[in-house]
Amino acid sequence: MLIIKKLGFSKIRRKIMKKTLLKKGLVLLAIVSLLGSFIACDDPDATVQPDECQQIEELVDEDAEEDGAAEESGAAEEDPEDDESVAEEGAEEESAEEEPSDENENAVEEVVDEGEDAAEEEVVDEDAAAEEAEEAEESEEAAEEESGVALNAAAGWWVNMLDADVKVDANSSVVMKFTVDDVIGTDNWSTPDIYLLVETAGEDGALTWVSDVAVTRTDNFGFLGDYNTFANNDVLGWTLDSNWDWDNFLSNIEGAEYTVTVKNYGATADVLMNVKASNGSEFYQNYKGITVSDSDNLYIRVTGDEGAWTGTFYGTESAALSE
Question: How many CB atoms are located within 10 Å of the residue 278 CB?
Fold first, then answer.
């Protein structure tokens, strides 16, 4: 029974193999025939029906389309990670181009720092130059104040021993400083006098005398016209006060430092003298309540008897009167 079955199966297997071989042979024969027809279509001398050539061309075109579709499908099914990798590489290259390297950044920072340092140095140099110029100017002014200007001892009465008259504006004060270097005369009037007067300035700036206001002498003999503080002070209406040492008056004046303050209140004026003797003694003299006819044109002169004394002038300072 088993042998019969085996023989039956063998027959069946042979039949299947024959059929398979037959099919393969037919397929191979068809391919050969088709290939021959394809070659014949390209040969102008071959006897092939046009319909057969058209069918072959359609088959070839369909096959080409199937191959193209397969290639597109294969390209679409490529690994997305590869695309991402390529994109990342491109981004890194762009980033490398856009972002400067550390060396470039350091170079740029160094250039910027050098530029800032140079700008700061220029500012410092300008500030230093300005400070030097200011110090030089202050030094010149200090030297001028320290050395002073020689007063004209040969001027004589009524003539200003200064180079120019000094104006005292209304409601303001002027402080002037000078020294008495040498008292040449032997009388008490051989000392400084402060002369107040009214003057007007022309278009060219030149001053024209208008009227006298007061002559305040160091020896307390102040006067205006025919009136003086000894005989007619009640007419003048001035207030005079001082603490002179009359026994040593001339010796105290010689080498003394004068600080004279003239205050213009508008209707009246004061002349205040503070004198420091060479021996350290300090004295004062105050003329107050002097009537002023024109407060907008009040001027000062430093004067005295001709050749009676020599001195050095150290400048003036002006200031508004405090209420």
Answer: 14
Domain definitions of the chain by residue range: 2-78, 108-147, 150-320
For 104: left if phi > 0, alpha if psi spans -120 to 50, otherwise beta; the answer is alpha
**10 Å Cβ neighbour count for 78?**
9
> Which amino acid makes up residue 32?
V
Instruction: Write down the architecture of domain 150-320 according to CATH.
Output: Sandwich (2.60)
Report the run of H or E that residue 313 belongs to, with start and end. strand 309-320
How many CA atoms are closer than 13 Å to the CA of 41, on its beta-carbon side? Answer: 17
The reported pTM is 0.57
Angle among Cα 153, 154, 160 to the nearest 5 degrees reads 75
Amino acid at 136: A
pLDDT digits (tens, 9 = 90+) for 250-301: 999 999 999 999 999 999 999 999 999 999 999 999 999 999 999 999 999 9
Q: To the nearest 10°, the Cα dihedral for 21, 52, 34, 58?
A: -100
Alpha-carbon distance 92 to 145, whole Å? Answer: 77
Name the β-bridge partners of 195.
215, 301
How far apart (Å, rounded) are the C-alpha atoms in residues 4 and 10? 10
Residue 223's beta-bridge partner residues?
A: 215, 228
From the CA atom positions of the chain, what is the Rg in Å? Answer: 62
d(CA 31, CA 113): 83
